[in-house]
Design goal:
Layout (H helix, E strand, L loop, with lengths): L5 H14 L13 H8 L9 E6 L5 H13 L4 E6 L10 H16 L3 E5 L3 E2 L7 H4 L7 E12 L3 E5 L4 E8 L5 E4 L5 E5 L4 E11 L4 E3 L7 E2 L10 H10 L1 H8 L7 E7 L8 E3 L3 H9 L17 H32 L3 E5 L6 H8 L2 H5 L4 E7 L14 H10 L6 E6 L7 H12 L5 E8 L17 H14 L4 E2 L3 E4 L2 H5 L3 H16 L5 E3 L1 H7 L1 E3 L2 E3 L5 E2 L1 E4 L4 E3 H12 L3 E5 L5 E3 L7 E2 L7 E3 L6 H6 L5 E3 L6 E7 L3 E8 L5 E8 L3 E5 L6 E3 L4 E3 L2 E8 L4 E7 L8
Parallel strand pairs: 1-2, 1-18, 2-3, 3-13, 13-15, 15-16, 16-17, 17-18, 20-21, 20-25, 25-27, 26-28, 27-30
Antiparallel strand pairs: 4-11, 5-10, 5-14, 6-9, 7-8, 7-10, 11-12, 19-32, 22-23, 23-24, 28-29, 31-34, 32-33, 33-39, 34-38, 35-36, 35-39, 37-38
Length: about 725
């Protein structure tokens, strides 16, 4: 189903690792306890939180120096530099680059670090308007409705067509049935059968998602500054020339040192149309073996046939690949070749049905980048509001599966109820417990008229202590390797077919697993069918982490390649569980030509979809077991060279006291990320590679528990 070649991907992955060998913060660090303890009190600068620092207002060397000093004094050692309005210089002008150069110099003098936002506001990909003014042929494109014609039975439509009309469909207004129409070169001739018909003509045209651009005099969000064609590698190459290469001329000597990398923001297709690029029909035919052009008009009907839904899924199987390969991978490769990282998050991660409509496939986009991310915006993640907001798991899973040591959160943009320090810490701890280990705090404007941009919780007297806590937490959560041994298949292909039930069920399963302390990672089609190694009843991902069980949530489709590998996995000792509805469509090369479900008797089946006692018993032995049910306690586990590290979080307002039994050998220790202190847990009991201790968590409380050889200065 995918054209992805694992050998080529592994070569690319190896090259990226070799390029990043001098950047330990972006490598897997199998350090020992003594080294980790030595760094714990004051971790390396690169694990600090970063302020998303917006240059709104006149920017001078004095403003930059003053802000950097203020940030560092509050425990923030990294800035994410974003151009803004009324800076006193145009974005991407020589004057602007000179100010970026001065910023990097001032940051280097203070032993601080800089991420550079790759755009003049957001979303990434319009190069401050240069695609509209300098490279209009490379602007974003889409399939859209060109015209709607009406006809009644017996009436003949004869119409000359513009060159960019590519498909047509007639829709019966009585029963919504439809007919794909044959378009001869440059004309349509069709006689309507009995009934009343609407004929949709579909064309390709320039269309752009709205952009918020620093050069827009309205400061609004509109399409006046067009995004580039994300599906065309030539457009991304031009984007890099407009932005990254220009930065390299000014600050390239600090790449991988003071400058950590480029930060992308929300590239997506928020358009009234369907993503298109000039070569997509040709590429589609090469990959799928048939011509999709006549069928694309059916994508615009309200009630397509089942076959038309499957053809649309084929299209969705192709354009996200192009998005990943042409846009994300090109930038990640450029960054790796220049000793940098590329971090980016998409749009609508909290609503996968919308994300699939706008970006196609979360995991296909994120598997290419060095640091996948999510954002927490509009109070999406908030204590005590009853919402289920586990979606940071998507970014951490993509990182784990595809060998990325870190995943990040952009948090607090547009929070209309401004958090207190305690609430803000809760929002971050919530994401730490779901695998996130890098924090970006939105939005800190540059100082104007001598007034520092800090406000709200980051201006509080309590903030520096929390900043240090986050610094230590991100350091600990970036060491070793992830340890979850359960994989959950994410049913993106079912979402392509419009199956909202699969999305809803997967969210419920994610919640139930986390509330029963069964940690997991999501795996996608590419991971199951090719990217992960399969050996001795284990799936091994590109982080070196192994899965002993794979859960398949309620889904309507799955690839033949994935099923073959799952059956081999089960035959060699792995556990496969189908929960809820089993896939009824088995996809080989195309969705159009799917076959009915095959024999799945080799797996465990739970039609109710519930995590019943037999299902739980079939799963691997848990690495965390509590002596009583406690949905409020969430955790994450990382395996170190000579120890196991656990992060526990009490999401509730009630104190939690439980007996916890965890996997590990050695001394049980509590590492206090707020104070930097390490102490033994005296009442811990060890037996058979497990350690039991009392876990007491205050409301909103967290604890790092390490099981292993005690650091030298803690040994008796």
């Amino acid at each position: 189903m995918k054209s992805f070649k694992i050998i080529l991907y592994l070569i690319l992955f190896t090259n990226i690792l070799s390029c990043s060998s001098n950047r330990p913060w972006q490598n897997f660090n199998d350090i020992d306890m003594d080294e980790m303890a030595a760094n714990f009190q004051s971790p390396p600068v690169e694990y600090s939180m970063t302020f998303y620092w917006g240059w709104d207002g006149e920017i001078t060397e004095e403003v930059i120096a003053s802000d950097l000093d203020a940030f560092k004094a509050r425990g923030v050692h990294i800035v994410t530099l974003e151009s803004g309005y009324a800076m006193g210089m145009p974005y991407l002008s020589p004057e602007w680059f000179e100010m970026v150069k001065k910023t990097v110099e001032l940051a280097r003098e203070r032993d601080m670090r800089v991420w550079i936002v790759d755009e003049g506001k957001y979303p990434s990909g319009f190069a401050g308007g240069k695609f509209t003014t300098d490279a209009p042929e490379l602007r974003m494109k889409a399939l859209v409705v060109a015209d709607t014609l009406e006809a009644v039975g017996g009436e003949t439509i004869f119409q000359k067509l513009p060159h960019n009309v590519v498909s047509a469909i007639a829709i019966n207004q009585t029963d919504t049935s439809n007919h794909i129409l044959d378009i001869q070169p440059g004309e349509l001739q069709w006689t309507a059968p009995e009934g009343t018909w609407n004929v949709l003509l579909i064309k390709h045209d320039f269309r752009s998602s709205p952009t918020r651009a620093v050069n827009n005099p309205t400061r609004g969000k509109d399409a006046s500054n067009s995004l580039c064609d994300y599906l065309d590698p030539a457009a991304t190459h031009q984007f890099i020339q407009f932005t990254h290469e220009q930065h390299k001329q000014y600050v390239g000597s600090e790449f991988g040192k003071t400058v950590l990398g480029f930060r992308g923001d929300e590239p997506d297709y928020s358009i009234r149309g369907i993503p298109w690029t000039p070569k997509i029909f040709e590429i589609f035919k090469q990959r799928k073996g048939y011509d999709v052009q006549p069928h694309v008009a059916s994508f615009f009907t309200s009630k397509p046939t089942d076959e038309q839904k499957r053809i649309k899924a084929d299209y969705w199987d192709v354009w996200p690949d192009l998005f990943g390969e042409s846009f994300f991978q090109q930038q990640a490769d450029w960054c790796a070749q220049n000793n940098l990282e590329y971090l980016v998050h998409l749009n609508k991660e909290d609503d996968m049905m919308q994300l699939v409509a706008h970006e196609g496939d979360f995991f296909e986009c994120m598997r290419h980048v060095q640091m996948p991310g999510v954002d927490a915006i509009w109070n999406q993640i908030w204590p005590d509001d009853g919402k289920v907001t586990d979606y940071p798991k998507y970014a951490s899973s993509a990182a784990h599966v595809y060998g990325k040591p870190r995943s990040f959160t952009e948090s607090f943009a547009a929070y209309r109820t401004q958090p207190t320090v305690a609430q803000a810490k809760w929002v971050l701890d919530h994401q730490f417990a779901r695998g996130i280990n890098m924090v970006e705090v939105m939005f800190v404007p540059a100082s104007t008229k001598g007034k520092l941009g800090l406000r709200g919780w980051n201006a509080s007297d309590e903030f520096p202590g929390v900043a240090k806590y986050v610094h230590r937490s991100c350091y600990l959560l970036s060491q070793g390797r992830p340890a979850a041994d359960i994989a959950v298949y994410y049913p993106t292909t079912s979402l392509w077919l419009g199956n909202e039930a699969s999305d809803k069920y997967t969210l419920q399963l994610m919640q139930r697993l986390l509330e029963t302390q069964r940690d997991f990672d999501f795996v996608d089609e590419t991971a199951l069918s090719s990217a992960m190694l399969l050996e001795n009843g284990l799936f091994q991902n590109l982080s070196g982490q192994t899965y002993r069980a794979v859960l398949i949530p309620s889904a309507v489709a799955i690839s033949k390649q994935a099923l073959v590998r799952l059956q081999t996995f089960a035959a060699s000792g792995g556990t496969v569980v189908f929960l809820g509805a089993e896939p009824s469509l088995i996809v080989d090369k195309t969705f159009r030509d799917v076959v009915a479900s095959t024999d799945l008797s080799w797996a465990i089946h739970e039609p109710s979809g519930e995590l019943t006692a037999p299902v739980m018993k079939a799963l691997p032995q848990p690495d965390v077991a509590l002596d009583k049910t406690c949905p409020a306690i969430k955790y994450t586990h990382r395996k170190l060279a000579d120890a196991d590290l656990y992060f526990f979080f009490n999401e509730s307002t009630e104190q939690q006291i439980v007996k916890a039994t965890v996997t590990g050998n050695g001394q049980a220790q509590e590492w206090d990320a707020m104070t930097g202190e390490i102490k033994k847990i005296e009442d811990a009991a060890s037996e058979s590679e497990q350690v039991t201790f009392e876990l007491e968590l205050e409301p909103y409380g967290t604890k790092f528990i390490v099981i292993g050889k005690a650091p030298a200065d803690l040994q008796e």
